[in-house]
Amino acid sequence: MTTPAATDLFAKARGHERLDQLAAAREHDLLPYFRLLEGEAGPVVAMEGRERIMLGSNNYLGLTRDPRVKRAAADALEHYGTALTGSRLLNGTVPLHSELEREIAEWMGTDDALVFTTGYQANVGCLSTLLEPGDTVICDSGDHASILDGVAMSRARVRPFRHNRLDKLETMLERASGDGGGVLCVVDGVFSMEGDVCDVARVAELCRAQGARLMVDEAHGVGVLGERGAGACEAFGVEDEVDLRMGTFSKSIASCGGFIAGPADVIDFLRVQARAFLFTAAAVPAAIGAALEALRICRSDEGGELRARLLDNARYLHRGLSELGFDVVEPTPGPDGEPLLTPIVPVVVGDDWQAVLLWKALYDAGVYTNVALYPAVPRGGALLRTSVMATHEPEHLDRALAVFEQAREDSGSGS
Ligand SMILES: Cc1ncc(COP(=O)(O)O)c(C=O)c1O
After folding, report:
1. Nearest C-alpha neighbor of 74 from the set 285, 379, 217, 334
2. Could you tell me if 118 and 43 lie in one domain?
3. Residue 380 pLDDT more than 70?
4. From atom 15 of ligand 1, which residue's Cα is the shortest distance away?
5. Do 201 and 231 share a structural domain?
6. What distance in angstroms lies between residue 267's CA and the mean position of ligand 1's atoms?
7. Residue 13: inside a domain, yes or no?
8. Domain encompassing residue 323
9. Integer-rounded Cα radius of gyration of the chain
10. CB 136 within 8 A of CB 181
């Protein structure tokens, strides 16, 4: 006879604090998540039976609908089939991977680059492999979950610092220098929820002063910031001072996948040691074909035009929402002291339910936004994360602003 376990493993699922909220939200059709997209991810989308202006995507350059990108995906599908059914190491590497890695390294100005199946795996694979017990890693508290997960897997000592508080980072770097192991600082170039930009130039200076290595997650920076669209490190002019740069294809690059770019020896080490790279299947060929073509567009003159249009749209939406009295997160100053815009234009609401109610009013009136609640943002810091695309026309943004204005009037408050 078997002895029952003292605790039912499923008890935590049944007693979870969010279950009541989830049930109430479902009952009143207020759940802002898992809404069904019924067509292409354009500036206006078909969603649950009607057209809605899409202010909730990471398709910043709008390339997921570009005929050249779609053709490249279709060609890769036709040439290599639906899937590679194996890891990059054994039977999942095709010439498209090599071309993509070479072009990413050229774009980032690094020796080499390694393509992972997702951006999440790029962070987890890199951090859990490079760091080990005895090392110290210093993270911004706003770093993406994939960074925190990779760090946790490594069992290195973690010294976190409060979001964007570089004075605290300096203290942590000083402390870490006495820890006795290797030291790595990891920051997001652009923080995904608030859209604020890290002063990577100052971070690089602080790391250099203490002999620490620096890794920057450019998931929301690539395609968006810098003359070449190479991200925050380019915008701040410190590409050569950053040891490792991570990026994803799941935003501006119109596909799915991720990369780590850096020195040849470190990239080779990851190529043969990173478990999140070795023990998972390579991305489907269509994803790699699409990423390669989108990357080429992003690096061309046309990419520069798309970036300019994208940031004009961000400026327009930011100004419009501020004028309506919404509490919009201000852009961070760039290297020249001028605001450094990103496509992310977040509206701070504060209370979780107020944020959900505002989301629903906008949704019902034909505007889709993302709701960020704790733990994606600090407690009491609920926000609607709106984001623009290069392919939004002024008319789309004007329509969205009119809907925001109506929602504000109906609720009788500024946010
Ligand atoms: C800052 C940041 N890093 C990493 C990731 C993970 O990338 P992916 O979604 O491509 O796996 C994301 C995506 O949400 C992100 O926002």
Report:
1. 285
2. no
3. yes
4. 219
5. yes
6. 20
7. no
8. 20-54+301-411
9. 22
10. yes
> From the alpha carbon of 251, which atom of ligand 1 is closest?
10
At 153, list the tokens.
Answer: 């897997």
How far does residue 120's CA lie from ligand 1's centre (Å)? Answer: 6
Parallel, antiparallel, or unpaired: how do β-strands 367-368 and 258-262 relate? unpaired
108 and 195 share a domain?
yes
Name the pTM for this structure: 0.96
Asked if residue 410 has pLDDT above 90, the reply is no
- Tens digit of each residue's pLDDT (9 = 90 or more) over 69-108: 999 999 999 999 999 999 999 999 999 999 999 999 999 9
Give residue ranges with CB within 6 A of ligand 1.
118-120, 123, 144, 146, 188, 192, 217, 219-220, 248, 250, 258
Q: State both tokens at 395.
A: 């008319």
pLDDT (average), residues 362-382: 93
For the stretch 99-114, pLDDT in tens is 999 999 999 999 999 9
- Three-state secondary structure call for residue 79: helix
Considering Cα of 68, then 72, then 73, then 79, what sign does the dihedral take?
positive
Angstrom distance (rounded) from CA 118 to CA 115: 8
Of 299, 319, 341, the residue that ends a domain is 299
Ligand 1, from 123, 141, 198, 248: best to mutate by most atoms within 8 Å of Cβ?
248
| Protein residue whose Cα sits closest to atom 10 of ligand 1 | 119
Query: Rounded to an integer, what distance in angstroms lies between the CA atom of residue 207 and that of residue 209?
Result: 5
